[in-house]
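[INFO] parsing input record for Cellulose biosynthesis protein BcsQ
[DEBUG] input buffer:
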Amino acid sequence: MTNQGELQAARSKLEALLPEARIDVSADPYRGLRILAISEIFSGMKPGDRRQLILSAVDDAVVAKLDLLSPAEADLMLLGDVSATTNEQQRLPLWPESIIRGQMETITVSLPSESDEPLSTPIFVTFYSLRGGVGRSTALAHTAHVLSKSSRVLCVDMDLEAPGLAALFGAENEVELDTGVVPLLLEAEMSGSVPNVSPHVLRVDPQRELYLLPAGVPDANYARKLTQLDPSSWYQEGANPLHLLIQSIREMALKPQVVLIDSRTGISAMSAPLLFDVADLAVVTFFPHPQARLGTGMLTRALLGATTTRSSDTRQYTPELRFLVSPVPGANAPEIRNHYIDRANTWISEWLAPARKLDGGPVFDDIDELIHFVGYSEEIAASDRAVQGAAENIYAPVAGWVAGFVDPLTEDPAPSGIGEVDLRKDRVLNDLRFSTGTAEDQSEDDFNETFLKTDLVERALSIETPLILGRKGTGKTALFRRLASESPSVVVTSPPGLPTTSAWMPDSEVYAAISSELTSRQLEWRSFWPLLVGIAISLNQEDAEAPTWVSERLAFVGGNKSTYGSLELVRDLRVLFSDPDAPLLALDWLARLDRQRESPVFLLFDGLDTGFGLEENDIHRRREGIAGLLSFMGARATQYENLRFKVMLREDIWRDLSVPNKSHFYGREVRLAWANQVDYLRVVVKQALRSAEFENLVVEAIGRPGLDLRQTSVEYWPENAVYDAWILLVGERVAGGKTAFTYNWVWFRLSDANDDHSPRAALQLMHEAVILEKRLNRASSYNRSILRPRSIVASLDAVSEQAIEALREEFRELENLFDELTQVGRTPFSVDEISVPAGVETLAQEVGLLGVDVGSKDDVQRYRVPELYRKALGMSRRGQA
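[DEBUG] output buffer:
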């Protein structure tokens, strides 16, 4: 870097040579000197002579840039304070200046997607590739087709040296002479203004709002005009032709919502401002070949340091960055495809590592949202045109990046505001409440208000369903509470803390005592459960028939239910087991109790997962005990007319059981999986509607003839009403993501590695978001929805912490794996990077902590950790720093 002594020496020599001149000498960001001299001596002097004069005083080797002007020329260029000129030049959106800005160790980035204020339309998107042959223009054209389904789209061909976008739209023959970008820019250079752009625009799809501003007709006259354009000089003149063209597009009567710009490849004069100045969003297209690594990395860092024309005195915007990796080979060879995907992810993580938020934190925590991979397609490669069809699905995620910043064109738009701004929103926020605890923790009122019946729940409640499976948090205990409160039922086992839990119900100490008793008498666990069921029925039904094979007094017979505890239970069981034929006698007793009933009654079992205890011996005992229960049910339950068994069981426990007649339950079990997104949203909406303020808002905003939203339970709302209420609550879009709709964002982020969803996680997310929104709303109002999407996004960290804590509590076997995953620090990762027992890996897969990224369940090569757990474990995506 040039030092101050060298600067002063050069300035002294030039002042001696041209004592009357205005002179500024500064260090070039790369090397050498930048010299600006304004003198009358240059009037009428040729550029070469001016240069030779200056170099007679200053060594040519140290000069990086010379601006030698007469006073008249300086006035024409509107040069003001000479001392400030070089500093301003360093902010120019040209390649040298932009590249040097990107070489900083850390770069402060301020993205539009991080702001609550929506960008005014149109949104400018520049498609760029450093090298050709990667499908940049094809991607733009197909993306335009997708976006034009809901937005007004203008495509601009700025690949001026090789125009071809018109041909991709089948409109090449419609481009008229002296129309297009090149004539418009040349007119702006000559006159300082851009004429009306509309006559230069073609509509390329009569069925959609899709338009094209072509580059021009590439004939001899076009080539002559192109050579007269000098984009590098535009930022040193008063009227910038590119800015004039962009402003003219903004002011078109057409009012495009999206402008897609096809930029020239390489380090060209025109591509720099399209990337570093004009673009709200830059889609960088590349193929992960080593030849592309250095240059595309340099481009990425330059974009991180850029400031768009949207910036103002109060807000500096960095262009949004997205990466389109194309064409990725290996459609039929996963190992080849994964090789290129891994390479691209690793490179992009490295390129984005310098980006930091204003608070110093990393900007790009989840780069998966920034990347889309397009495989090689013979159909697309051989097509002369980008037409509507299957290819649109391939590029739909790219369109999703753009759509997140655009309000769609619809005849019946979803609600996008809450009306009476601050006061009304404050009332709703203060009134909203979401029950985030387990079903055991909810009050009776809360439980009754929030319980949601779905088709799956109805099946689970059916008298014909003896087994209800599900992971933690999917609602097993909620079903248990509903059955216990609304149906004729006898609670046999129950989680602690519920009103249904009695002092006599077995816990880990009781199960341990029973296990010893069974072992000493050489009995199996299947002999225990009929006795426990009989005792439960007797304590529930005063006139229940007593067992007849013992003469000793039994505490549960004619006893006081309120004083019957675990000690009495164990003692009664020991007495009943004293007869050698107790297992057979117990079955006979249960059959007589069944005949004594006049109508069906549910026998309810819940809390079996933790009821046995969490130590290694407890888990072994649990496996044998539950297997004994299911074995007994499989052999005997169908023989009873009125005793109907209902067992709530964690799915991983069920899979681990060895039961001789397990197939007896196939087709008769229900798995609580929450696979329906609308039902998942209903859970949140139903709880939000407990707020009278929010209910009033919903009725006013989305009410429709023939549907009384107040009198109709959310379970029976049509899907569009559920989505509209959701949008009113949390907004429609998360800016700039492939899963741009908020309901998709929540759906994918809260899924585990098995694509299972816990309603509890959704409610925890809403609870945290309400707390955050109250704080944010005091600082800056946001009235497009009750909760701004940013509140939802920022609350995921807290939900992730709670999700990991729930796993810690229930699966102590995973503790060492948690530590190892934190050490690995990123996802996905090779299976060789962890060293826990195979059984722990299997359990981690079953509970959704680990998913197979490469390989199969039986031959895993690489694991991934879902977003729900990743954040709490401190794991980054793809090596992001």
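[INFO] Confidence is low (pLDDT under 50) at residues 80-87, 410-416.
[INFO] shutting down worker
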